[in-house]
Amino acid sequence: MEPRDSPLTTHVLDTASGLPARGLCLRLSWLEDHSQQWMELRTSYTDPDGRCPGLLMPDQMKAGTYKLTFDTEGYWRKRGQESFYPYVEVVFTVTSNAQKFHVPLLLSPWSYTTYRGS
Predict the structure, then answer these.
(1) Which domain range does residue 37 map to?
(2) 85 a known binding residue?
(3) DSSP string, the chain
(4) What gap in Å lies between CA 37 and CA 27, rounded to an integer?
């Protein structure tokens, strides 16, 4: 699969260094309708540019609630840096499987920001 074909992507930037957050572990989960339990779909790592482009194949995206969990504590620990947030969870709703979703994360040891990108 070409990463540009994925309906879901993310990009993590380390705002403390001004560089991409390379090697940050993240998990993608989906909330099952009936059981209301999170089902993990994939574990991945950001590439040297801080991106994780191919989180889902185009035919895997369906309407529902998804969660991206970023292991921020592990990321900062590898850099010898203390941090306030051990992980960041971004929960979002997909209403149409025909859309593409980009979920950027701006990260420092003491704060984070996220938004729906394009």
Answers:
(1) 8-114
(2) no
(3) --GGG-SEEEEEEETTTTEE-TT-EEEEEEE-TTT--EEEEEEEE--TTSEE--SS-GGG--SEEEEEEE-HHHHHHHTT---S-S-EEEEEEE--TTS-EEEEEEE-SS-EEE--B-
(4) 15
pTM for the structure as a whole: 0.92
Q: Around Cβ 51, how many Cβ atoms within 10 Å? A: 19
Phi first, then psi: what are they for 69, rounded to 5°?
-110, 120
pLDDT given for residue 3 in this prediction: 53
Looking at the structure of the chain, the number of domains it has is 1
Q: Is residue 115 annotated as involved in ligand binding?
A: yes
CATH number, domain of 94, equals 2.60.40.180
Please list the ranges in the chain whose pLDDT falls under 70: 1-4
Please tell me whether 102 is known to bind a ligand.
Answer: no
